[in-house]
Automatic annotation (TrEMBL):
Residues 188-273 form the Pirin C-terminal domain. It holds the Pfam family Pirin_C. This is Redox-sensitive bicupin YhaK (Pirin superfamily). Belongs to the pirin family. Residues 39-132 form the Pirin N-terminal domain. Signal peptide: none annotated. It comes from the Bacteria. InterPro entries: Pirin, Pirin_C_dom, Pirin_N_dom, RmlC-like_jellyroll, RmlC_Cupin_sf.
Length: 310
């Protein structure tokens, strides 16, 4: 999924440590025309911009909608597509053509550059689109695509967790990851304790149902130091996390880079048809890149400024 904003703002980050229980409130972002869907973007947020290497979280649905995201570029990141309900067709400049359904993982590594599209018929759509920032030593890696129709499950009293990315409680996903992290869908049925890596910071998002201390909408940030996540109720939640990302990055439109000049070069290449390949089979033109802001983009750290506890 793309950032389709016509005037994307620089995503600025500070370098302060987190507070317990920070609620990252989403903002509504429309994707496409009048019949398209609206997503709730909780990451990057007003204050916090990364959770581990996770740098982007769009949640959508359940809503009846048509997804139509024309070909667009990415650099320096991985896209992680996760559905709770519906179906989405992925095309990319490597020639990949892959439908994704609930419980399956589509993982695209942009590296030095890739382009892709996503679309669906009018149907009920419910899911999340996430990005993972690639660390410096891997951000120029070659583009790649993976589809994982079956993923490992961690089960314990009162819960089952599908491990989509990284590892959780000793269960490891087969998907390629370039930094220590976790991404999992947890089904809660009663009261449970889900094991966590104390060195990770985490984010928790309610997908459906009713789980105590979680509301529909916000992504709840948890700082490092926790060895377990206690949940109670009946529903599904998304868990993301990882070691705090120590690098400063520039995020603008669909690019992750390290400087203004690098982002400007990515934009120029895309507009001139260089470096990102072509997506075959999509009925429509590629997305043009927005105009760069008049001020220079600056690399920033993990958070923008100090924030209050909630």
């Amino acid at each position: 999924m793309s950032n389709l904003e016509l005037d994307p703002q620089e995503i600025r980050c500070g370098a302060e440590a987190g507070a317990d229980g920070e609620a990252l409130m989403g903002r509504e972002v429309p994707l496409g025309g009048p019949r398209a869907m609206t997503v709730s973007r909780t990451l990057p947020g007003v204050h916090r911009r990364l959770i581990g290497a996770w740098c982007f979280v769009d949640a959508y649905g359940p809503q009846r909608a048509t997804m139509r995201v024309p070909p667009h570029p990415h650099t320096g990141l991985q896209t992680v597509s996760w559905l709770v309900e519906g179906e989405v067709l992925h095309r990319d400049s490597l020639g990949s053509l892959q439908e994704i359904r609930p419980g399956q993982l589509n993982l695209m590594t942009a590296g030095r550059g890739i382009s892709h599209s996503e679309e669906s018929p009018e149907t009920v759509l419910h899911g999340v689109q996430l990005w993972v920032a690639l660390p410096g030593e891997h951000r120029q890696t070659g583009p790649a695509f993976e589809h994982h129709p079956a993923l490992p499950v961690l089960a314990g009293p009162g819960f089952e967790a599908i491990v989509a990315m990284g590892s959780l409680g000793g269960v490891e996903s087969p998907a390629t990851a370039f930094s220590p992290l976790v991404g999992a869908e947890i089904t809660v049925d009663g009261t449970c304790e889900v094991p966590l890596s104390p060195g990770f910071e985490h984010g928790v998002l309610l997908l459906d149902g009713a789980v105590e201390r979680l509301e529909a909408g916000p992504l709840v940030y948890l700082p490092p130091g926790r060895s377990a996540l206690r949940l109670s109720g009946r529903g599904r939640v998304l868990l993301i996390g990882g070691e705090p990302f120590g690098e400063e990055i520039v995020m603008w439109w669909n690019f992750v880079g390290r400087s203004h000049d690098e982002i400007a070069a990515f934009r120029k290449d895309w507009m001139e048809g260089e470096g990102f390949g072509a997506v075959e089979g999509f009925d429509g033109a590629p997305l043009p890149a927005p105009v760069l802001p008049t001020t220079r983009l600056k690399p920033r750290g993990r958070v923008r400024q100090p924030f209050r506890n909630v």
